[in-house]
Amino acid sequence: MTTSDFQSQWAEWHQEIEARRRSPQGFLAVTGLYWLDIEPISIPGAPGRWALGENGPVVELDDDEHLVLGGDARRGRVDFGTFDGRHPVRARYGATEIEIARRGTTYIVRPRQADHQLLADYEGTPSYPPSPLWALTGEFLAREFPLEIEVGSTVDGLSSSYTSSGVVEFEVNGSTFRLTAFDDDDGLTFLFGDETSGTTTYPGGRELETRRPDAHGFVRLDFNRATNLPCAYTSFTTCPLPPPENRLALAVEAGEQIPARH
Q1: pLDDT in tens, 36-63
Q2: Please, are residues 17 and 226 in contact by the beta-carbon 8 Å criterion?
Q3: Which of 41, 114, 141, 156 has the fewest CB atoms within 10 Å, measured from its CB?
């Protein structure tokens, strides 16, 4: 692949990432973050009164209100049941999309509105110029048994558990580094920080998604495609933080930088 082709493919990929951010359903459209408890609360932009019931989140709707859930209009009491932290529930109330998600032992509600000011003010995310030098090949070192790893969060006291089947070892300028890999539905996810964190890149770290190891146990680590976590854009998030071993003693001068107007 020529350098020109490499840069063109990267540009197309980054345009898709930015399009998702500008989506009316993206994180820039989130208007608030609300934690559920047994005491019912009203949520701006959402109907009814929300609480944590015996079997998960519930909302009691007024007679003239309804939520659209899975294509069906729901009225009265809506019981969402239990679900895991990786698969939130989405409902609609007029032009507002409402996310119900699990965090730890409780649940959160986040309304999204297409006319939210943060979305209107978004000016884009700068990146380092894409370079094939940062498209690396790493070796996947599998664990004997998958390991559950607790990682911290941008929310004090909140942690999340991720499954790791191994680490990826790679070289940069003759030095060897390792990153703990987290298993994802479609591949591997790496939460990492490096020596650019807090200077040219977001202080909380970045995220890199890859395919699963190939038949020979190798993984392509294209750091040009390292992206910011949602917490780089809005405070209405519960982003995970990189585990300590994924804080690289290396300046990864590739991928996304601190967003404009951060």
Answers
A1: 999 999 999 999 999 999 999 999 999 9
A2: no
A3: 156
